[in-house]
């Protein structure tokens, strides 16, 4: 009958929620893209922190190399210069070279400690951020593909419905002409 509860829907039941599915996929895609954007920002921060630690490591190594070079030059200068005239002068010279060697050793320890702690932590954080970004990117791409498939399926269904409607109209027109 013509009662509202008994009337058929003008579209197939499978099509009733197609728009809703596309909406849900778009919402999910937006969420995935936001997660990807956040992961990219975290990756950029991790890369910046890693560069800062690499620069610090290079600065520490340069200080160590400079101190090492200066110690070698001083040792050579003192060895080629006049010999100490007293035991006190010899002791002072050895103490001076000892302090220079201690400074070189201290700078080497600083560089090694920085490499093992801060630089290693920044490198690990950058790798983790890279993996998180890649995971977020892959998730975003997967939802993009799903949405593209759903959109293509919706287009095919719309075309099919249009074709069926055109066929129904042509059949109705034929039946009308026949009955006249």
Quick tags:
single chain, 180 residues, mainly alpha, 87% helix, rod-shaped
Which structural class best describes the helix and strand composition?
mainly alpha
- The string of secondary-structure elements, in order, is HH
How many beta-strand runs? 0
Outline: rod-shaped
Query: Average pLDDT, to the nearest integer?
Result: 88
The radius of gyration over CA amounts to 39 Å
**Helicity, in percent?**
over 70%
Beta-sheet strand percentage?
A: under 5%
Descriptive notes:
The protein has 180 residues and is mainly α. 87% of the residues lie in helices and 0% in strands. The longest helix has 93 residues, at 87-179.
What would a concise description of this structure say?
The protein is an all-alpha fold. It has helices at residues 18-80, 87-179. Helix content is 87%, strand content 0%.
Blueprint of the fold:
Blueprint: H1 18-80, H2 87-179
